[in-house]
Amino acid sequence: MAADLPDYYFRVRENGAFVYRIDVENRQRRIEMDQIATVNIRNGEVKAHGDRRLGPADEAAIADWMEARRATLARRDIDDIRRTIDHLNLTAHWAQSRATDEMLATITDDLLLAMHDLRSVLVRKKADRMTRDRS
């Protein structure tokens, strides 16, 4: 099993991760996880844990993880938006075919405001892109 374990473990948190070095080469043959750093994915900051110094292998592993994590998060963002489109379509079908007047009364204003806000943002961003593309 020890050969199958990676050298590093990244405990994901909201803004990044805690980075642990995995050690199985000890007397008890237990898996030891030694925290070596904290990573902030938003601003790219990497802080060594305590008084540690990160070596080139540590820095390379962290940089690789950050690149892969950013790609994963970007894919998830797009997937979430595509699901939102599906939900909007399902909501339209629900409103047309199954919703009662009472159900519609409870959600109509909130949904219309959210859709208006989204439409405003999308129209403004599209106009900005069109203006920039013409320049």
Structure description:
- Helices cover 56% and strands 20% of the residues.
- The protein contains two helices and four strands.
- Strands 1-2-3-4 form a four-stranded antiparallel β-sheet, with helices on one face.
- It starts with 7 loop residues before the first strand and ends with a helix.
- It has a domain of 78 residues.
- The chain is of the alpha+beta class and 135 residues long.
- Strand 1 and strand 2 form a beta hairpin.
Query: Which value, in Å, is the CA radius of gyration?
Result: 24 Å
Question: How far apart, in Å, are the first and last alpha carbons?
Answer: 59 Å
Biggest sheet, spatial arrangement of strands: 1-2-3-4
Helix count, DSSP H or I runs of 4 or more residues: 2
Order of helices and strands: EEEEHH
Portion in helices? 55-70%
What percentage of the residues does DSSP assign to strands (E)? 15-25%
Number of strands: 4
Low-confidence parts lasting 5 or more residues at pLDDT below 50?
A: none
Question: Quick summary of this structure?
Answer:
The chain is an alpha+beta fold and 135 residues long. The protein is 56% helix and 20% strand.
Secondary structure layout plus pairing:
Layout: E1 8-13, E2 16-23, E3 32-40, E4 45-48, H1 56-97, H2 101-134
Antiparallel strand pairs: 1-2, 2-3, 3-4
